[in-house]
Amino acid sequence: MARRKCAPGLACALATLALVAWETKAEAQLGVRWDCYLDAGAIDCATLANAYAESVPGVTLTSSDATVSVGVRSIEVATRRRYLVAVEGGGSRVELAREVAQSRGAEQTLLDVLALLHRGTVPFLDVAAPGRVEGGAFTLRAAGASAATAADGERETTWYGRPWISGEVVSAGVQVHGVAGGLELNRSTESHRLRVVGDAAYRYVRFDLPGGDELRGGFFRASGSVVGARSLGRGVSVAALGGAQRQPQNNLALRAELGAGVEWIRAPFLATDGTNFGIRYRVRALWDRYVSETTQGHERRVYPHHALGVFALVHYAAVDLTLDLGVGAPLLEPGLWDVNGRATLTFRVAGALEIVLGGMLIVRGGAIHEPGDPSALSPVATIMAGSDFGRLTYQAELSFAYTFGNGALRTQDRRWR
Q1: What is the pLDDT of residue 223?
Q2: How far apart are CA 24 and CA 8, in angstroms?
Q3: Percentage of the chain exceeding pLDDT 90
Q4: 104: Cβ–Cβ under 8 A, 6 or more apart, which residues?
Q5: d(Cα 56, Cα 93) in Å, to the nearest integer?
Q6: 159-412: which CATH topology?
Q7: pLDDT exceeds 90 at position 278
Q8: Residue partners of 213: CB distance under 8 A and separation at least 6
Q9: What are the residue boundaries of the structural domains of the chain, listed by start?
Q10: Helix-helix angle 10-19:106-121, to 10 degrees
């Protein structure tokens, strides 16, 4: 093998990676669809693409006839930047991540990210032979992606599921039987987030009134929401919003909504201890059907609504404290404004098991769903579940939850919570 001289610095490092102590050639090409977005950091996508194609034998970056796709993203994490590489093809997927200090410099950062790309690409090369030396050259043959397998240790789940359930049995002058449950499903990547949340509850009450009368009955409530978000870079993302709810205790036989929003957050992914904050604006079209005619004389309504909110987070490995403050109103009826504040304290007891303490306070100028005759609502519902249309509403709660899938992802992805 003939030795080669190279100048110090990046060119020499790339040559070393490419040669790997032998001249390397490929018998077949591996077509790669390149998808890179680096909005900040020490390196850019063009430099990384050239280095990747030059240093991995057999790789050809192409927009057609690609066997695998390679995605590269980065996230700012305090004084470091987290680079994420995903290689996918033929039903297999490899996901790798590495945090690089921002003081490391362009050349060393490039080598660090190239190392991830090399590790992610190797499973998609046919090395069962595991290669051979011919004429002083070590040969790897590029194979179809169907032959690729990803080691379990290299997989990082992009989803999580978070169910919860509770039951209630009370017999102390009043008899209450209830059951409630909910589920949160989420899939997060650096560029997208899909979050679906739903919950439902049923309560049956029997209460002996003075004078021998009896109050009994049950009511059912449910709600669900979906958020599909797309990151634009530098903490900015846009989202499509949808949802529906049934809250008979609040004079809502059914409310459906569809809208859009924009959000800026300082650190979309917060993987380490620290603080975070952001701002969010939403505009939605709401369709309401009421249990009882409202103070404005409506049994159903369609109207636009908008809201502006700010939020902050203190995040540690064992505990989170989140604070939210928002103001909203129907676009055409600003007098029906509301100001709401929420605080949540989350304790991670062990692994993905959490204890959550929460509180909410809402002050209103008016509520569009307020009934003209509150007595027309179910007394069981209003007594046992409150009525969310007064000038002041407050609430506190305690819950337990367990996260399946990537439990860490729930605490890291802060977009559109």
Answers
A1: 96
A2: 21
A3: 36
A4: 42, 112
A5: 18
A6: Porin (2.40.160)
A7: yes
A8: none
A9: 10-154, 159-412
A10: 20
How far is Cα 195 from Cα 241, in angstroms, rounded to an integer?
Answer: 10
The pLDDT, as a whole number, for residue 25 is 42
Length of the chain equals 417
Closest among 411, 281, 285, 280 to 348, alpha carbons compared: 411
What number is the average pLDDT over the span 277-304? Answer: 96
CA distance 390 to 402: 34
Q: ∠378-383-389 over CA atoms, to 5°?
A: 80
The rounded distance, in Å, linking the Cα atoms of 68 and 46 is: 19
Q: Which residues of 324-350 are buried (b: 16+ CB within 10 A; e: fewer)?
A: bebebbbeeeeebebebebebebebee
CB atoms under 10 Å from CB of 147, counted, come to 15
Can you tell me which residue has the tokens 């059951």? 179
Q: Give the whole-angstrom CA distance, residue 6 versus residue 95.
A: 33
pLDDT of residue 4: 39
- Asked if pLDDT for residue 23 goes beyond 60, the answer is no
- pLDDT band for position 156 (50/70/90)? low
